[in-house]
Amino acid sequence: MNKPRSWSWLLLFTTSGTLLCCAMPITLVTLGLGATVATMASSAPWLITLSQFKGWMFLASGLLIALAAWVVHRSGRSCPVDTELAAACERADVWNRRFIWVSVGIWMLGFVAAYGLPFFI
Predict the structure, then answer these.
(1) Interval 67-121: pLDDT, tens
(2) What DSSP line would sit under the chain, residue for residue?
(3) pTM for this structure?
(4) Fewer C-beta within 10 Å: the chain N or C terminus?
(5) Are 27 and 113 in contact (CB under 8 A)?
(6) How many of the other CB atoms lie within 10 Å of CB of 94?
(7) Is residue 14 within 8 Å of 60, Cβ to Cβ?
(8) What phi and psi values does residue 70 have, to the nearest 5 degrees?
(9) Are 30 and 117 contacting, i.e. CB atoms less than 8 angstroms apart?
């Protein structure tokens, strides 16, 4: 029962990382908030390192999302026979599917902001 939760948190952590490194700075600069990005970069210099490897970050987080989607949606998955455990399993399954869709949305938002916005600026 703990494994689905760890997948969910791992998904949200990696997709949020892509937003922090790549999407948020580009969006802030687009909105004319370049000083905010400069302050972020001086306060959290690791964001610069992450943004230098944004391609790898998007690839790794995309693969993690795909792997988690496969784990959650694969055929042959079943919940226990015990009614209490079955209810908990089904609830966890619903939440895992929600987390995957939220992660896909965050990932797509980050991808568009990191790779799509620079063409329009």
Answers:
(1) 888 888 878 877 888 888 889 888 888 888 888 888 888 888 878 877 887 677 6
(2) -HHHHHHHHHHHHHHHHHIIIIIHHHHHHHTT-HHHHHHHHHH-THHHHHHHTHHHHHHHHHHHHHHHHHHHH-TT----SSHHHHHHHHHHHHHHHHHHHHHHHHHHHHHIIIIIHHHH-
(3) 0.67
(4) C
(5) yes
(6) 10
(7) yes
(8) -65, -45
(9) yes
